[in-house]
Amino acid sequence: MGMDLRQLRYFLEIVERGSITGAAGTLNVAQPALSLHVRNLEGQLGTRLLLRRPTGVVPTEAGEILARRARSILAEVARTEAEIRSLETDPSGRVAIGLTGTIGGLLAVPLIEALRERYPQITLQIAEAMSGFVAGWLSEGRVDLAVLYEAPADPGLACDPLLEEELVVLWPPDRRAPPEIALAALEGVPLVLPSRAHGLRRMIDAELSGVGIAAELAVEIDSYANIKNLVAAGFGASVLPWHAVAPEAGTGALTVSRIEAPGLWRGAWLIRPDARPVTRAQEAVAETLRAVVGELLADGVWAAARAPSSGCPAPGAER
Question: What sign does the dihedral 249-252-254-259 (CA atoms) show?
């Protein structure tokens, strides 16, 4: 007999809770019955799925595979049910979107407000993290859509360019910095940068390499707020989006130099799995998000940003 949705739902709850007892309380199922479900599932698959420890349970390698697939299957079933139920009504259901922290700070509130006005039956779940985590959530089916600063190289992901934002060099407040500088002028300058796990760092390294220099690393830290604090304290210079440093530049807490023409720009992209069916609710969220981004650009809220100058690159193309 094959697995059923209830078994998958029970097993996923146990993995996410890290405890059979905790899952039993959430599911309102007796703990012995839940343990029996796990044993039956292990018997069907012929392998151990959970390791029992004093503090709870953790999945084995097989258990992690099952949990990942179960999450995707259950999400797809929920999307299918919601889409069928909403065929004769306004789009409804839950849509999960992944955002990086800087994008979320600009986009989350106006997007929620716009959806509440246009599609009140849609429930939006927003998850924020570094771009690498958000991309992983998208691949695993934990989120339906994502906005990232890197176009996908995965042919299984489709993208829609949203905007391009300008990057600038920031200096300590007492630094006499020119209004504009060439990238090559950063040779030998100590830099406070995010780690190479961060898309911005990879872009900066590539751009510096393109003018024949390498970053002189002073501090490596994955936090825009701390990068700005460290620059202000004199640890070095950095490169960040203009909108992220505009408040500090306005108060004199940081000094900013723009990069000589054509400047340094990075794109933001709306990304979704290409092979996964798109529900009406997801399409409504994507459409609303594009409209909100357009409004933020038109109103100047997304400072030093512009409409995209090109479409998405082909998978595997140089970016």
Answer: positive
**Contact present, 146 and 98 (Cβ < 8 Å):** yes
d(CA 272, CA 72): 14
Using DSSP bridges, classify how beta strands 145-148 and 93-99 pair: parallel, antiparallel or unpaired. parallel
Domains and CATH numbers, the chain: 5-81 (1.10.10.10), 89-163+266-306 (3.40.190.10), 165-265 (3.40.190.10)
- 136-183 per-position pLDDT tens digit: 888 888 899 999 988 777 777 888 999 999 999 999 999 888 999 999
Structure tokens at 40: 């039956």
pLDDT tens track for 44-76: 999 999 998 888 899 999 999 999 999 988 888
Query: Hey, what amino acid is at 132?
Result: G
pLDDT, residue 316, reads: 45
Q: Could you tell me if 14 and 20 are in contact, meaning their C-beta atoms sit under 8 angstroms apart?
A: yes
Would you tell me the crossing angle of helices 20-27 and 5-17 to the nearest 10 degrees? 120
Q: Confidence class of residue 97 from pLDDT cuts 50, 70 and 90?
A: very high
Q: How far apart (Å, rounded) are the C-alpha atoms in residues 315 and 317?
A: 6
pTM across the whole model: 0.68
What residue type is assigned to position 31 of the chain? Q
Helix (H), strand (E) at residue 138: helix 131-140
